[in-house]
Amino acid sequence: MNEFDNRVFVIDKQSGPTSFEVVDAFRGATGIRRVGHAGTLDPLARGVLLLCAGGATRVVEHFVDLGKWYEFDVRLGEGTATLDAEGEITARVPCPDLSRDDLVAAAAHFVGECVLEPPAYSAIKKNGRRLYELARAGETPKVEGKKVRIYSLEITAIDLPVVGFRLNCSRGTYVRSLARDFGARFELPAHIRNLVRTAVGPYRVEDGFPSTRVFEGDLAGLKGIDLPEALGFLPGIVVSEGAKRGLMNGALPGPADVVRTVGFKGDERAIRILDEDGGLLAVGRRTEGPERKRLAWVDSYRLLVNTGRSNR
Fold first, then answer.
1. Fold held by 7-66+203-228
2. Which residues are part of the catalytic machinery?
3. Which of 55, 137, 30, 46 is nearest to 84 (CA)?
């Protein structure tokens, strides 16, 4: 068995390559064909890029759902086509002498649930084509804003026209759009500089393996995280031996099947399903609303052990 299969890897992506190029390099270096990442990083950005290899790709969405931490600078008074330092300058105006109180109040405006319109140069699709492809062709289609959650937006440094930030946010947050909209609070163009994703959930950039070595094919010292450990941030239920057999045959575990629970804090939607020895059998999901199966712990699950059967 390939030593890199069925594991999660914390990569420190350096500025330059796209996330997909890092994935391709990892495939070539490890010989694993099924590799996916848990959240795109812009080419100019660096920091945590989680890679799921082999069977771990079956649960990649749970890593995508993790909160993200970023540190970055915003250049006020200067707008670019790509909303980062690489793009052509499209607007330049003097930055006024803004007070710290003004800047803190503007940052506080975004905390909580907010709507961000994706940048024109981004990888999301409109009518089957990437937005950056349309932008390069001179097209500017209207794209609906995306609802995201900003848990915190802290100002770390002020050296006008540059302001430093630390951000904790949900999946799907376009930091370049946040920089643009922050500038707009002062009727100023703005773009982002020096973007670093410092953490994804419990996985920190300090623990990342340099992407430069992946491109070189030098994987000495690269250590993957086994799925039971990698998914340890999810709460779990331990099921009886009889329920384990039922699970293999498509039966949803009910309250009587659960020996004990692990790490529950509230109404979590994703749940590890474990056997009595602590082995990871599956990851289940709860749904909200009238379709919720009230007599079952989960409404669906994805098996992570080989049974020869399809997953429910």
1. Pseudouridine synthase (3.30.2350)
2. 42
3. 46
